[in-house]
Amino acid sequence: MTDTKTVPNQKRTNWNDEAFRACGERLAREATDLSAFNTMENANDVDAIRKALGYERIAFYGTSYGTELGQYLLRQHPANLHAVVLDAVVPMQFNLVTQVSSVKQRIAQKYFQGCEREAACREAYPDLARRLLTLLDRFDRQPVKVPIRDPKNPGKTVVVKLTGEILADALYQALYIRDVRPLIPYIIDRADRGDFTFISSLLLPLQLDNDDHAIGMYTTVLCAERGDSDPSAIRTSGFNPRLVRTELKGAQAQIEVCKDWNIELLPRDVLEPVKSDVPTLLLSGDFDPITPPAFATQVAAGFSRATLVTFPPGRSWPGIREPMRE
Predict the structure, then answer these.
(1) Which of 9, 97, 185, 295 has its CA 20 to 30 A from that of 85?
(2) Cβ atoms of 47 and 286 closer than 8 Å
(3) Burial of 73 (0-12, 13-18, 19+ CB in 10 A)
(4) Is the torsion defined by CA of 301, 81, 291, 245 positive or negative?
(5) Could you give the count of Cα atoms lying within 13 Å of 144 in the half-sphere of its Cβ?
(6) Distance, CA of 67 to chain centre
């Protein structure tokens, strides 16, 4: 017999809950000064490791946040680098508090327009984008209780109160997983018909089991750079209202936790574009959910020896795949 517990309807980005306050207090006791954990110090740490290992110069490879760290290295320790690779490039100017709406809407449009252009997807899943938005609104009004296997306690069942917000976040996270991404039209179609098998067996367990995110460091780094952001600066014109509401809620909560954790801002000039003569390879994926190829182009503008490579999905979109049935 399985135990059943209910998971609160909260996301990782719900910064206002008491757990984050307690976490900030604990980390402050252990580390003394949380403001010391920022990208400027991280770049100095990388160079200290280089020196300790006895290397005169190093090649640095950074992915996602690592591309931002690489840009700090290029600015702070250029003489100690002989080459840099930036993979999934984050520009210094990109505000992760107020500008996420633009990249999320881009990937959603790219994905659903790709489905509409491909005959097989269009015929199998007509009007997919509209159906998804209607489904999300319905789940917000009437959440569905979905039982899933507890990834941390085998034999136990977790009941998730599935809202539109939770499903939207789960589908967005699925875009990061190559083998799951082609299943999204099928998952949406089945959920719209009342079948939550793949949501309960695949999407939600992946989210619940995702404990490899260093939230403490993420928070201090982001707050040091963007803790003075104004959530009202989030653009609304031309954006899906649901997306704007979600991002505004997250931005307001993020700024509150920055204040609560008392993170000092870095000098504002750290947000300026980096200029460099170090040979740099910038890699992008056309279907990257958060760092589009335009970001790499933006960063490369300040590099005199830059090479840009974009990896396409092989056609206009990743394609569809239905699960095999017995």
Answers:
(1) 97
(2) no
(3) buried
(4) negative
(5) 20
(6) 14
